[in-house]
Amino acid sequence: MIKNYKNLKNLVIKYAFVDVTNGREELQKFVLSGNKLPVKITGDIVDVVSHDDGTSIEFQLNIETLEILYTDLNNKMKDNLEEKDTSEEKNIATVKRNGNSIKYIENPSEKVQMEAVKQNPDSIQHIKEPTEKVQLAAVKQNPDSIQHIKEPSEKVQLVAVKRNSYSIEYIKSPSEKVQMEAVKEEGHSIKNIENPSEKSSTGSS
């Protein structure tokens, strides 16, 4: 039957998504640590899952076999996952691809932390005791990321509410100054303040 479809010999497949079950967490750590896992996959293309967008069509591939091409994968993964702080350059390259991968880096430098939150502000949740500079970088991009910061300084709080007054709901016991800044930007944000001060309550009306 295939002989009637001559162009099948010229198929070009640029990438594919795979649904991983067993070993998924280990593979996630391996990839987020900046590694690539070479594999050889065989299977059947069995269904069409998208329309032709003018450049490509997506198909469903049922995988029959998956061969890992590392001859000693266990040692390779162990070396990479247990490797202590390699070079700062490698760490920066890793977090630039995925900010959340910083959770696999032991004692990342401030420079690495900055690159992580630039890529994904919410990755600050994986940083122990981020400096104020890193905190500011995160909330400037996404004010709501302040919810992942333990005891943010008043300066960080002010930056967050100036960019999104409603982010005050993530701040425990905001100072009156922070409250006033939030209601100045948006009066209705008073609803997100637990036990607002009398002054901020007046300022919201």
Brief overview:
This protein is of the alpha+beta class and 205 residues long. It is 36% helix and 10% strand. A two-stranded antiparallel sheet has the order 1-2.
Name some characteristics of this structure.
205 residues, alpha+beta, 2 domains, 8 helices, 2 strands, 10% strand
The chain-level mean pLDDT equals 82
Q: What is the CA–CA distance across the termini? A: 76 Å
The number of domains: 2
Number of helices: 8
What is the global morphology? elongated
Outline the low-pLDDT stretches. none
Order of helices and strands: HEEHHHHHHH
In order across it, which strands form the biggest sheet?
1-2
User: What does the main sheet amount to?
Assistant: 2 strands, antiparallel
Please state the structural category.
alpha+beta
Helix content: 25-40%
Radius of gyration from the alpha-carbon trace, in angstroms:
24 Å
Please provide the count of β strands.
Answer: 2
Beta-strand content bin: 5-15%
